[in-house]
Amino acid sequence: MEKGQLPKLYNYDGRMYKMQSIMGVFERDNHSKEIKLCAKEDNSQARKRGGTKKFTSCDQRGRKVNSTGYLLDERGNIIDKSGNIIWRSHELLYNEPPKIFPFTEFSINWIKGTLDRDVTQNPRHDDEYDLEGQRINSMGYLIDSKDNIIDRWSKSILFKKDVLEDRFGQEAEIPYIFRSGKLKRPDDEIEKHLQKKLDKAMTRGRSGLAGGQDDSEDDDMLSDLEKIERRQKHKYGQMDDGHLAPMVDVEGQDIDDIAPDQEQRGLMGDLMMDHEEQFNDQPE
Questions:
Q1: Range in 21-25, 148-152, 229-233 with the lowest mean pLDDT
Q2: For 28-123, where are the alpha helices, taking DSSP H only?
Q3: Of 8-17, 233-242, 275-284, where does the model show the most confidence?
Q4: Most buried in the list 31, 85, 190, 200, measured by CB within 10 Å?
Q5: Domain range spanning residue 13?
Q6: Per-residue pLDDT tens for 101-112?
């Protein structure tokens, strides 16, 4: 990757794309450096039926964009410059797509219930709780009262119900990119401990031991999980709206709050200005 260039990202389908491929071309305010949205008359049928002249945001080339500058189709999906859908409208958070890099860490163990068998093999698919009394869906993932998938520590929402895929008659499966093996899996003591706990529950279940857990380790387990929860809340804390805080990079830095050295601080600004220069240099 060239200096000053953003790394490629993944969408939920596991497709890689460049950030600049989904951004419009704009002027920027000289002081705030914020983009200046343009406007054009909205000629859609829905607007025409209203009888009142309406306007929609666009970039300098007249392409429809949202308030944060991403290219949109008529349904509000984020598209690339060729018109391909990269992010569906219901997958966005505050008009922003999730930022999923190849170095983004994720482990399926963070959302798995503690189980002594594979609940997906239950022909009735009616399992509702794991061995610890936590609610699960038909895939065995931990869920809240609204069927959003949550993490096992702070109970933060990791996946809203409306981005889940249907499995066994229920919106239950996480987006493909998070089960594809393409993301970085954590390899620390916390992950090893959690994997050991889940494996042990399964082993005891296959051996026909009730409960699938060894009560003799409860005290040590509680202490370890308290440490895990403190770490996870710091790294993946819960925001005021209940959603998970932004992910961090491999060095533990918030991706949306990179250290403010001169090069990094100007990265997005340089990217936008490059687009502006390319646009302005093009012949009429």
A1: 229-233
A2: 45-50
A3: 8-17
A4: 190
A5: 9-101+255-281
A6: 999 999 999 999
Q: Does 197 share its domain with 212?
A: yes
- Mean pLDDT for the stretch of residues 49-75: 89
- Which runs of E-coded beta strand occur in 21-124? 27-28, 35-36, 38-41, 55-58, 78-79, 85-87
Cβ atoms of 78 and 151 closer than 8 Å: no
Domain count, the chain: 2
71 and 95 fall within a common domain = yes
Predicted TM-score of the model (pTM):
0.71
Inside any domain, residue 4 = no
Q: 209 by DSSP, 3-state: which? A: coil
pLDDT value of residue 11: 98
Separation between Cα atoms, residue 247 and residue 10, nearest integer Å = 14
Does 218 lie in the same domain as 113? Answer: yes
Assigned token pair, 226: 């308290």
